[in-house]
Amino acid sequence: MTSNKQSKIAVIVLNWNGEEDSLKCIAALKKQLAEHSIIAVDNASSDNFVSVVAQKYPEIIVLENSENKGFSGGVNTGIRYAIDNNFDYIALINNDALPEPNWLNELVGVLDSRPEVGIATGKILKMDGHTIDTTGDMYTTWGIPYPRGRDSKDTLQYEDEEYIFSACGGASLYRVQMLNEIGLFDEDFFAYYEDVDLSFRAQLAGWKVYYTPKAIVHHKVGGTSGKIKGFTLHQTVKNYPWLFWKNVPLRLVPHMYPRFVIAHIATVYAGFTKGNSRLTIKALFIAIVLFPKKLHQRHVIQKNHKVSTEYIKSMIVVGLPPGLPPEAKILKIRSFARSVMFWR
Predict the structure, then answer these.
(1) Which pTM value belongs to this model?
(2) Would you report the helix, strand and coil content of the chain in percent, each value rounded to 5?
(3) Separation CA 304–CA 203 (nearest Å)
(4) Across-strand partners of 124?
(5) CA–CA separation, 158 and 139 (whole Å)
(6) Distance (Å, rounded) from C-alpha 216 to C-alpha 20?
(7) Which of 97, 198, 204, 287 has its CA 20 to 30 A from that of 186?
(8) What pLDDT digit, counting tens, does each position of 78-115 carry?
(9) How far is it, in rounded angstroms, from Cα 244 to Cα 234?
(10) How many Å apart are CA 172 and CA 211, to the nearest integer?
(11) Rounded to an integer, what distance in angstroms lies between the CA atom of residue 97 and that of residue 221?
């Protein structure tokens, strides 16, 4: 799929002490077939990224945050700039990812040809070129999101273009019209699942998320989050409840909430057994403190949703995510779960 319309496109690269990866990403973006502007956002790094970009790529727009605002706050800095400067589409790409030359062109083609689509995403492979990182994110009846196809070999099993529940914020294209309607990334999430949250809000507002296997990116995986011990677990414990309570339609809550409680207990349990009790407790505290704010956000989101609960239900995957870690065995009480809960 190619694009004939000349839309104004911005691509945002977020850097936090990842100068080497970020520069490689920018070099790959310079080879894109689609015309675009690059916005480099720095999250108060201690490396030389800003000065190097200014010297090597003077045409790139460089924005500096005075503090590390995480992924959601960091990319929002770039998104606000792009909106203020009348860009039509905004692409996000992880600084440790390398897009193939036609990546952006394929995503732009989707948004240009499908006005109902607010977010376009593609196939993200690991650096070996044969292992899938994600082909879009799914949301389950247990309130657990997961990346479709992760760690499986790419045997062309995801070669159909199709609507999908959520796009990975690490390599997707967003329609500004949609962002103006539903809002930007929730900065309280900081990192992890803020992309699922935004896609969920988009779905509720009547926008579609679309997957094309022709838009290919190679991802290093963990290039940023791997620098901080316990970071992923901390964000997961904190963000799971917010994602659920902000977005799940009221009629689905009685069916999903008991499952979700079990899933979240398992996540907290993993935090303690892995020696991250302090971070786990801190995450729970933050989740509880900001819970009233999330309920207010829920009120606004649910008040303005435009699709039926049946549609949202049809987009939610029944069952547990594949490839759960060993500590998730606590979730294997399916006989109990199925006897007291149902999905009708």
Answers:
(1) 0.92
(2) 45, 20, 35
(3) 12
(4) 134, 217
(5) 18
(6) 21
(7) 97
(8) 999 999 999 999 999 999 999 999 999 999 999 999 99
(9) 17
(10) 10
(11) 8
